[in-house]
Structure formats: C-alpha cells, structure tokens
Amino acid sequence: GGGLEGPCEPGVRRADLGAVHWCVLPFRVLLVLTSHRGIQMYESNGNTMVYWHALDSGDASPVQAVFARGIAASGHFISVGTWSGRVLVFDIPVKGPNIVLSEELAGHQTPITDIATEPAQGQDCVADMVTADDSGLLCVWRSGPEFTLLTRIPGFGVPCPSVKLWQGIIAAGYGNGQVHLYEATTGNLHVQINAHARAICALDLAPEVGKLLSAGEDTFVHIWKLSRSPESGYIEVSPLP
User: Which residues form the WD repeat-containing protein 54 beta-propeller domain (predicted)?
Assistant: First the structure.
C-alpha cells in the first residue's frame, strides 16, 4: 500500500533495501524489510513502523558487506539472517512496538542466504525452521522460547540460495542447479534432482497441493510434485509438464 511509497528510516534509500517479507504470526501480520543499515518492521498497513534494529558492523572487515537476508516467522518469533552467519530471533508481542531481540543463533560461519519455516502443529521435537548459507550448509531448528539446533546438513562447495520446508521435507536449491530433498528430522538426503543447467535463483511451494516451483539462471521455471510413499514414508518427486 501507500506506506511503501512513503519514507524509509532516515538514511535508508529504497535502493538499499535487501529483502521484503510478509510475516504471518498467529495474532498479527508484520511487513519486514532489510537493508545494509538494519531491519525494519511495519504494521500490515505498511504505514506504521513498529521496530528498527540497526545492524552492528563491528565484526565486519572494511571490505565486507553488511546485510540481512532471509526472513521467516515461526510461532510468535521472527527470524532474520545476517552477513555474519548469525540468525537474529525477535520475540513479537500480540500488539504494540515492544519487540525484543530474544536470541542469536550461531549455527553458521558464512552469510545466511534464506530461512524457511512451517507450523509445528503441536508435535514434540519437530523441525519447524531451516536456515541456509553461502557454503551450502543447512541448519535445522526447533523453535520455541529457546531455539534448539536439531541437525546440520553439510554443504558441498556451492551456495544454497533458496530453501523451503513442507511436511517435514526440506527442499534446497543450490548454485549448481540441483534441488535436494532431505528428511528434516534426520538430515538424510532422499532425492537429488538435476533441475537446472545453471544456479537455482529461487524455490516456492504451494503447501496445500505439495507442488514445488524452481527458477534458475538458465531462464527456466520447473514445477515438481512432492509426495510421500504410503508404504515406506519415503519422499517422492515427479516433474509436472
């Protein structure tokens, strides 16, 4: 709406914005924007900024870019990735601006590329958030008052620009054009797809029907049908025309 045409935080130009994401919480919706200067959170009307978090560049070298990338909501938390590999977890109140930085997750050593979440649906020890970085490393978390690192899925020398989470399945798109499907709770690789001739740019999911979309630098977009075998529980995937 109109708020996006209005002024940003002083000193932040529209060209500086790095990521924009609607965060749908159980009790409110916030619009989260990132830039090299910090993280802004707006009410859903886009007009009222309720929180500003400045990025601390103290740990960065003079030639290192400072940025935030990867935004996702889980329960009453919003997680935002940073250039340092740390993931900032913000505790969001039911209403008002009393947002606090509750935790910093330290599972990564290289810049965060993407974060994905899905509702935990009341299960214990469930993996409901996955974070990805420039080395291709994935970290799988259980959200809560204290986030718990459940497993690490090692990278293999290429970045993971995009990651999604669906019914306990991690879909990860890599810089070599491959899409990997992992079991979230164990980190086991179930399916490896040579999806694109060049790097994956983005993945998206239609969760109600289990369809995964992949877009690559080869200018192609592919759609895949995800499912689980009723007999083995194994992850299955098939391309859609």
Answer: 11-238
What tokens appear for 96 in the block?
Answer: 């008002």
* Alpha-carbon torsion (201, 205, 206, 212), positive or negative: positive
Tell me which CATH homologous superfamily contains domain 122-240: YVTN repeat-like/Quinoprotein amine dehydrogenase (2.130.10.10)
Using CA atoms, how far residue 199 sits from 76, 81, 181, 216, in Å, is: 34, 21, 16, 6
pLDDT by residue (tens digit) across 136-179?
A: 999 999 999 999 999 999 999 999 999 999 999 999 999 999 99
Q: Per-residue pLDDT tens for 132-142?
A: 999 999 999 99
Task: State which CATH number among 3.40.1000, 2.40.10, 1.10.357, 1.10.10 fits the domain covering 15-106.
Answer: 2.40.10
Locate 82 and state its tokens.
């940073």
Query: CA nearest 235: which of 221, 224, 223, 219?
Result: 224
